[in-house]
Amino acid sequence: MKQNTSFLRKFFLYKCLFALAFWSPAILSVEDKLFTSLSNNFPEDGSNQKIKTLPLLYTKSNQSKANFDWVVIQNTTENLSLSEITNYNVKQLIALLSNFRQGSRLQNLTLTNVSVDWDALMEIFQTVWHSSIEYFNINNITQLSDIESYDFDYSGTSMKALAVNKILITDMYFTQDDIYRIFADMNIPDLTIVDAEMIHMLCPSSKSRFRYLNFSGNELTDLLFQKCDNLIQLEILILQKNKFESLRKVSFMSSHMKSLKYLDMSNNLLRHDGADVRCQWAESLTELDLSSNQLADAVFECLPVNIRKLSLQNNHISTVPRGMVELKSLEGLNLASNRLADLPGCGGFTSLQFLNVEMNLILTPSADFFRSCPRVRELQAGHNPFKCSCELQAFIRLERQSGGKLSGWPVAYVCEYPEGLRGTELKDFHLSLLACNTTLLLVTALLLTLVLVAVVAFLCIYLDVPWYVRMTWQWTQTKRRAWHNPSGDQGAVLQFHAFISYSERDSLWVKNELIPNLEKGDGCIQLCQHERNFIPGKSIVENIINCIEKSYKSIFVLSPNFVQSEWCHYELYFAHHKLFSENSNSLILILLEPIPPYLIPARYHKLKALMAKRTYLEWPKERSKHALFWANLRAAISINLPKAAENCYEGID
Q1: Rounded to whole angstroms, what are the CA distances from 418 to 58, 237, 251, 415, 428?
Q2: Could you give the count of Cα atoms lying within 13 Å of 207 in the half-sphere of its Cβ?
Q3: Same domain, 445 and 575
Q4: What CATH number did the domain enclosing 148 receive?
Q5: Who has the most CB within 10 Å: 130, 182, 355, 595?
């Protein structure tokens, strides 16, 4: 019963495969754990399409018997994928591949998870080499036995590209040339060996057909291909994720590759300290990737002069030095993830069209970038810690004028400083023109200052401010001397009923009318007059201040002559100062003659204020009213002064 079930399964599978087999059949031997992916080029619609993967699953055959299942596959298959290749089925694999001689339709072969001895691995390569296969991919190789020298036959191949991904070598003691020479002398256009922990590769023994080499993810160092003159057709070289350290040695390596156009040295340990070390690159090199290394500003002294595309992303570059070698052909420059503080100029990049400076340390980009770089069509400057200030306003205006040249705008352009604006997109950041235009701000401030100075000067002249300042100073000095001379006159003791201030031109009225009428009679009124009471030896100002302080009232005889007198102005000022400092009502104004307003100088604004707010006595022209005038005046200054009474009694005696 079990035999019948097994027979039915095999019969059904054979029938399915036989339905695909017609025209020029080829023989395929399949054993356990061997799978195939088939493709054909004769679909129903006549187009060249792949059919679905067809796994060929069998129970394990009795190894003591040569019991193999044979399946017919048409020779129109172009793509074949096999996995789980071991020492148990490698002979069947080699037998299978031997059927695809040159002229067959099979072009693409992929082997995955290959775990075989060295001789079996070389036999697989050798068989594929002489087959119709043009593109051979082999992944996850484990070499089980000792590596020995192998005489590889490189003649008569259809191979165009070989890709080897991940190799595990169990033999720890072997001659490296035995394995490196096999690959170095493969006379094919494309060779890829990645993630193989390869520490070296030999220079081809003769002029090589290599046009594409990819040795990524290995352990290669600066010793690779030094003084190698046989890679004359090589156009693309990818050496990323290795252990290269010297940019100068890399340049010398490339100088022997006369056709090299693209070189990828990213994710290495490259440095260049300058020190007047001259670099020498292949003149044909137009695209260079030096990203994710340890390069600083000195790298610009060691670059190919004909380079068109250059990537220096993720290095330690802080500035693009001026006066470096000009890169007149450079069209694209990637400086992202460095330490730039500003946009670089285009003095040495006259053909620059694309610039990437994202994720640097740019706070306020230069607003004149597009003027110095007129050919730039795209600028990527986002994801920088922008400082939103007046300096940044010009860059924001530049974006509006650039016509969309700022890539990533506005999402990638966000304020980082100050903290209050963090997260704000630059398009939403605005400041007034006055706040950001230093010249306009200075001019405005200067104009305001000039206006203020002019107003102050006008007021000083109109109100005679210097005169008041001088008077205040003299008042202060007089008071200070009085405080420091306590033995002098006691200014706090009142000696007079009134101090008389008048113009010398009105002295006749004062002497003939005012003084006699006030001091006569029983009132015993004592008046202070400068002619008889000023103390010789003291200054006029000091005498005025002392007389005003020793008088109960201050009588001012107002007339057109009064406003023309400088000393009268002094006396009025000091009396007015006493009025406010002592909060007293000590002023008496006598209007001897009417004073037209136009005659009162501007500095007599206090007099104008007093005449407008205070009641004054007007000298009557009618003689009949004189008695009432004197009575009112005596009443205003009437007070019992002990010192004045003492003087009065002495006079009577």
Answers
A1: 71, 46, 45, 8, 15
A2: 4
A3: no
A4: 3.80.10.10
A5: 355
Is residue 56 predicted with pLDDT exceeding 90? no
Contact predicate 545/574, CB 8 Å: yes
Query: Does some domain include residue 278?
Result: no
* Secondary structure E strands in 433-571: 496-501, 527-528, 551-558
Judge whether 307 and 333 are in contact, CB under 8 Å: no
CA distance 313 to 66: 60
Nearest CA-CA partner of 100 in 115, 114, 82, 113: 82
In sequence order, what DSSP letters do the residues of 56-67 get, joined into one string?
A: ---PPP-TTTT-
Are 631 and 500 contained in the same domain?
yes
Is residue 582 within 8 A of residue 609, CB to CB? The reply is: no
pLDDT score at 270: 96
Tens of pLDDT, residue by residue over 167-177, are 888 876 777 78
Tokens standing for residue 177: 């040339």
**Which among 579, 600, 580 has a CA at the least distance from the CA of 588?**
579
Contact 479, 491 (CB under 8 A): no
The rounded distance, in Å, linking the Cα atoms of 42 and 347 is 60
Best CA proximity match to 51, nearest among 35, 64, 40: 40
Which region among 51-55, 467-471, 485-489 has the lowest average model confidence (pLDDT)? Answer: 51-55
Cα gap 332→22, rounded to integer Å: 55
- Judge contact between 86 and 112, C-beta under 8 A: no
Please report the beta strands in 6-89, taking only residues with DSSP state E, as ranges in sequence order.
25-30, 69-74, 79-86
Residue 637 predicted with pLDDT over 90:
no
Q: 427 and 410 in contact (C-beta within 8 Å)?
A: yes
**Three-state DSSP class for residue 140:** strand
Residue of 408, 427, 420, 301 lying closest to 359 (CA atoms): 408
- Residue 556: beta bridge partners? 501, 589
Q: Is the CB of residue 590 less than 8 Å from the CB of residue 562?
A: no
Tell whether 459 and 509 lie within a shared domain.
no
| φ, ψ (nearest 5 deg) of residue 411 | -60, -40
Round to whole Å and give the CA distance between 223 and 232: 18
With a threshold of 0.70, does the pTM exceed it? Answer: no
